[in-house]
Amino acid sequence: MLNVVIFGAPGAGKGTQSDKLVERFKLNHISTGDLLRKEIAEQTELGKRIKSIMDSGSLVSDDIVIEMIDKAIANDTQGILFDGFPRNVAQAEVLDKMLEKHGRKLTCMIQLDVPQEELIRRMLERAKISGRSDDNEVTIKNRLKEYESKTLPVANYYAQQGKQIKINGLGSVDAIAQNIISEVERVSK
Ligand code: AMP
Fold it and tell me: Distance from the CA of 103 to the center of ligand 1, in angstroms?
């Protein structure tokens, strides 16, 4: 069963490429950002607690997302694409343990590389249509800062495990998707 992490800065194209991968490999798409936004939209207790944190572009606490991921793994029967998780090294370590508990292991981590100017350009573009309250100039800067200080070390964590696959995130959506699909096929053979 495939267990793939799609990794990259905000604006790198994780969501777009996730759709392609899910279609090709029939994976369960688990996006912690989507799950958290759903809590906010439904105005649950959790949603009320996390709204201001997400609006500022900071990360919510590990416990919240770890619980969501644990449930998702327990309920999954088809293989998972993790999108937006892990966001720091502590989450990456917990993910390994959770997968092991369910008799699984990570297939690979796909890292979408996109230069910073392009990330900002894409996010500002997305802000015009997404309706996401965290797609604005101030929050975008904080999200990139959070990414660099907390999330980027995760790349090294997977590099050390030999699980990191870097993909150039510039170019057409289909060409990038094809590169990712070839790599996933190669490592899952
Ligand atoms: P995303 O949709 O992945 O860009 O996530 C949007 C926001 O949700 C982030 O800026 C964080 O506030 C929160 N978030 C999503 N995933 C995580 C995670 N794994 N750990 C902590 N916060 C997260």
Answer: 27
The verdict on the CB of residue 36 being under 6 Å from ligand 1 is yes
Q: What value does the mean pLDDT take over residues 86-94?
A: 98
Q: Give the domain range for residue 143.
A: 3-187
DSSP H or E run through 117: helix 116-130
Atom nearest to 143 CA in ligand 1: 10
Task: Determine whether 186 is an active site residue.
Answer: no
DSSP assignments along 54-109, one per residue: HHHTPPPPHHHHHHHHHHHHHH-SS-EEEES---SHHHHHHHHHHHHHTT----EE
Percent of the chain at pLDDT exceeding 90:
94
Indicate whether residue 87 lines ligand 1 (CB < 6 A): yes
Number of independent structural domains in the chain: 1
Q: CATH number of the domain at 99, please.
A: 3.40.50.300
pTM attached to this predicted model:
0.96
Q: 75-88 pLDDT, tens per residue?
A: 999 999 999 999 99
- Say if residue 130's pLDDT is above 90: no
